[in-house]
Design brief:
The protein is of the alpha+beta class. The protein is built from six helices and eight strands, in the order αββααββαβββαβα. The strands form two sheets. A four-stranded mixed beta sheet has the order 2-1-4-3. The longest helix is centred in the first third of the chain and has 36 residues. About 3% of the residues have low confidence.
Length: 196
């Protein structure tokens, strides 16, 4: 067999295989297209956007960032959300965050956030920090020493120079979490108890 005949046979085999592959791929794509077009929900409509209805369960989670405690309560203004899409609910939450009063901030309200949205359920979280309500100072352990921060600004108020290794184990545990005190009298009484 000459080289010319060998190359012709190889070329013919490649052409036959290519034709078979083309026919198979075309048939497969046609079958997929037919299946896709037969689906009942093929058309997507703007009417299928999830909206809040009177049947939507609206939950307000209150989360304390200081204690990691969460409890659920009823959202007081649920009627104002009726008919709204996810984007519109997000806009309402942004407006709620912008309108937090100084009194609410003093009570520890940090912000609101959207946790879950569907036509059946809506969960909004109210983030609170009870420590902000609890006191003016945060006493904690830092690099082996007891330090005091003003709260809620979280700026260094006083570096005591007291080593945490010199106090009892339960107090060290409390200091790792941070101890909130309401005024300077309580602060100095606490620091005195550590230094004695």
């Amino acid at each position: 067999m000459t080289n010319k005949k060998f190359y012709c046979i190889i070329l013919a085999l490649l052409l036959i295989m290519s034709a078979f592959a083309y026919t198979y791929i075309r048939a497969y794509n046609t079958e997929i297209a037919v299946r896709f077009n037969e689906r009942e929900d093929f058309e997507v409509s703007a009417d299928k956007v999830d909206r809040i209805t009177e049947d939507t369960e609206i939950i307000l989670e209150v989360y304390d960032v200081h204690t990691n405690h969460v409890y659920e309560t009823e959202f007081s203004d649920a009627a104002s959300l009726e008919g709204k899409t996810r984007e519109e609910v997000e806009d309402v939450i942004l407006a709620m965050n912008r309108s937090i009063s100084d009194a609410e901030k003093a009570e520890g309200l940090k912000n609101y956030q959207l946790i879950y949205f569907s036509a059946d359920n809506l969960t909004i979280r109210k983030n609170m920090d009870t420590a902000a309500e609890a006191g003016q100072y945060l006493v904690k352990e830092e690099n082996g020493y007891i330090v005091v921060y003003s709260y809620p600004e979280n700026t260094l108020y006083h570096n005591t120079g007291i080593l945490t290794a010199e106090i009892d184990a339960s107090s060290r545990d409390d200091l790792r979490e941070g101890i909130y005190v309401k005024n300077s009298e309580e602060l100095y009484a606490l620091l005195e108890s550590f230094s004695s």
